[in-house]
Design a protein that fits this description.
By secondary structure, the chain is an alpha/beta fold. It contains 16 helices and 13 strands. The termini are far apart. One of its GO terms (biological process) is 'de novo' NAD+ biosynthetic process from L-aspartate.
Length: about 350
């Protein structure tokens, strides 16, 4: 064992139930092995309020730690080993621009309900909560979009345009009842790029963000596999382009992808379109029984910013390090948005 490993094990033993380490499925093997709980965003969100631990360490990206800080009970402290582990997709939705966009869209009197993917900042979740909206994950996007459409005249789905379109396809929302906002709303003043007349007859208004990791998966790759290995199965994450999702044999959250592999018959060959750490972990787990391959190799650099070294460094000084906190003006409406999701999916 190296020094970081020794430190992590000794501190976990010393702190006992006072410490809980949570890890997302996209974490590396070297980190995930020291987590107490692993899962996708929905699973991990559900676990926060039930934990007795005083110190909760989130091995993932920053928006996940923020979500935990929003849902934490009094006396709990949320930490992340590297605060620079952000999410490019989450960064594509700035709270100020989201609020401006909602105000513009509601100028004609329509009630627009915002629904934000959990891959968003606490500030965005706060805006969504104040406008009567909620949060979704890839596991419950269908349920939550149905919920949101029942709350007003139209839904603003953000920040992931691919998850929005894939979910709309599942629900049968016609193409002519959707609109994707201009890419310019990400970095520019929405006043210059959002027009109520363009969205007046739309049921679903879509923010133009995307996940750079899942954007890399291409339809041509699937077509090549179909020709070379027609017996192979292909499953992908719904953050992929709709053309990729429609060509696959199935799509769903990381939990869905894991279950799909678990339930596949012995001897199956399965290509998976998602972050490579999870794919390689499944390949090792089922080696000799099933063949698991990446649709293409795509690694999240930000998930990779959590390492044994910075996890050990955090644990060594955890009682003196400032925890992740969300100011009350953001926390309360953001918590309301998250709780609406948890209630709708309970």
């Amino acid at each position: 064992m190296n020094k970081a490993t020794d430190t992590i094990l000794s501190i976990k033993k010393a702190m006992g139930d006072r410490l809980a380490i949570l890890g997302h499925h996209y974490q590396s093997d070297e980190v995930i092995q020291y987590t107490d709980i692993r899962g996708d965003s929905l699973e991990l969100s559900r676990r926060i309020s039930g934990l007795d631990a005083e110190y909760i360490v989130f091995c993932g990206v920053y928006f996940m730690a923020e979500s935990a800080a929003i849902l934490q009970r009094e006396g709990q402290k949320i930490h992340i080993p590297n605060t620079e582990a952000t999410c490019p997709m989450a960064d594509m939705a700035i709270a100020e621009n989201v609020e401006k966009t909602l105000n513009i869209l509601q100028k004609d009197g329509r009630k627009i309900i915002p629904l934000t993917y959990v891959n968003s900042s606490a500030a965005v979740k706060g805006v969504v909560g104040r406008f009567g909206g909620s949060v979704c994950t890839s596991a419950n996007a269908k349920t939550m979009l149905e919920w949101a459409m029942g709350q007003g005249d139209a839904v603003l789905f953000l920040p992931d345009k691919h998850l929005a379109r894939n979910t709309a396809n599942t629900l049968g929302i016609p193409e002519d009842k959707r609109i994707i906002l201009s890419d310019a709303v990400i970095d520019s003043d929405p006043e210059l790029h959002v027009f109520t007349d363009q969205a007046a007859d739309k049921d679903l208004i879509i923010w133009p963000g995307f996940c750079p990791i899942h954007e890399e998966f291409q339809l041509e790759t699937i077509q090549h596999i179909r020709q070379e290995e027609p017996e192979a199965q292909i499953v992908v994450h719904p953050e992929c382009d709709p053309k990729v999702v429609q060509a696959a044999d199935g799509n769903g959250s990381t939990t869905f992808l894991i279950k799909y592999v678990e339930e596949a018959p012995s001897g199956a060959t399965i290509y998976i379109g998602t972050e490579d750490n999870l794919v390689q972990r499944l390949a090792k787990r089922f080696e000799g029984e099933k063949t698991i391959k990446p649709l293409s190799v795509s690694l999240c650099e930000d998930m990779g910013k959590i390492t044994l070294v910075n996890l050990a460094a955090l644990l060594e000084n955890i009682e003196n390090i400032q925890p992740v906190e969300v100011e009350d003006s953001i926390k309360e409406p953001a918590k309301l948005a998250l709780e609406r999701m948890l209630k709708a999916c309970s």
